[in-house]
Every structure is written in structure tokens, then in C-alpha cells.
Amino acid sequence: VSGASTNEVLTKDGSGNAAWAAAGGAGDLEILSDSELGADGTSLVYTPSSALDMETTYGELYVLVQGWAATAASIGLKINDHTDYDLNRIMNDSATVTGAHLDANSTFELINSAIGTNGDLFSAICSIKRTESGEGAVKMAFDASGGYAYQGNQITQGYDVTTIADSEIDKIEVESSANMDKGVRLTVWGRKV
């Protein structure tokens, strides 16, 4: 585009006129990873080349997983290999709406197998944000929505019980209790602070 330098975007200046400005400012979304299963499997992992700093670099992460389940399965997310998540979920299995509170879950549940069917399309998106208590304990909070196309859906909210002193995420993993089909995609975005 004429007049634009590398890494510039078209914006408005203070007078409302079109102007070129540097890309990558606060609030911008950045694709961090976009990968897919090369063969049927139960896990997709994103390990960034350097840890994702949730205090100074990213205000929020968005994790999207979608594809086909070979067998009805529960699908969960975990960060930094942590295995203690507390969560609340509302689940609709096409006929009944239920709610539950789960303590000490080994993953943050995105989709429960009760709403899955064999060979069904599934999709889930999860937001991860850094939170700090009044006493200074740093934890990651999660909000998710997901489901299987045929059977049902769920909304889940919770947090990683493990304190993360350095506010960094160095691994994001999606796990399934049964095989996901080849081609399931995992996409991770970061919203800049």
C-alpha cells in the first residue's frame, strides 16, 4: 500500500483523518499458535518459545479447540502442567440443564463427555486472565463455552488453584479422555496489554 512502512496500519489521527501508525499496540490480538493433530490422539500442546507474561505482555489469552471426536469424550485444558482446578459449570444435554461445582479437577473442563456422542463435531473457546488476590496471590482465571454439535453445550467458569508467582504461562495443553480425530485444531491468541 502506498505510503505505508513495514508493520504499519491505517488509523485515524486526532483530527479524524486517515493516518499510518505502528502496528502492535495495546489491545491488539496476536496469533501465538495455530496447530492441528497429525493423527488421532488425546492431547494437543502449545509450548511457546518463551513464557507468556500475563502481567506485562498479555492481558488475556484465548484458546480455541475444534474438530471431530472419534469417541464421546471429556475435553479439558491445563496450563504449566498444573492439575488442580476449581470450576462451576452449566451443562445442557439437549433435554436437561444441570449445574455443578467441581473442586480439585485435574483439568479445567471445557466439555463434559455426558454431552458428547461418537463421531461428533465439537468446539470450545476459553479465555485465560491473570488475577491477583488482596494478599498478592496470582492465579489464572478461566471462562469457557463449548459443546458437541449434536448433543449439547456447556458454560464453565473457574480458576487454576496453583499460585503462579511469576505470572507466566509456559505451556497450554488440551486433553481428551478419548481420541480426538486427526485434524483437530488448537489456536491460541494473546491480547496485548
Describe the structure.
With 193 residues, the chain is an all-beta fold. It has strands at 8-12, 18-22, 29-36, 41-46, 52-53, 58-69, 75-79, 85-92, 97-105, 108-111, 120-132, 138-148, 152-160, 168-169, 172-180, 185-192. The strands form 4 sheets. Strands 3-16-6-11-12-13-8-9 form an 8-stranded antiparallel sheet, with no helix packed on it. Strands 4-15-7-10 form a 4-stranded antiparallel sheet, with no helix packed on it. Strands 1-2 form a two-stranded antiparallel sheet. A hairpin with a 4-residue loop joins strand 8 and strand 9 (97-105).
- Residue share in β-strands: over 45%
Inertia-based shape: globular
Task: Please list the strands of the largest sheet in the order they lie side by side.
Answer: 3-16-6-11-12-13-8-9
Helical segment count: 0
N-C termini distance: 28 Å
Radius of gyration: 19 Å
Q: State mean pLDDT (0 to 100 scale).
A: 92
String of helices and strands: EEEEEEEEEEEEEEEE
Topology, number of strands: 16
Major sheet, described briefly? 8 strands, antiparallel
Q: What structural class do the secondary elements suggest?
A: mainly beta
Could you list the spans in which at least 5 consecutive residues all have pLDDT below 50? none
List the SSEs and their pairings.
Layout: E1 8-12, E2 18-22, E3 29-36, E4 41-46, E5 52-53, E6 58-69, E7 75-79, E8 85-92, E9 97-105, E10 108-111, E11 120-132, E12 138-148, E13 152-160, E14 168-169, E15 172-180, E16 185-192
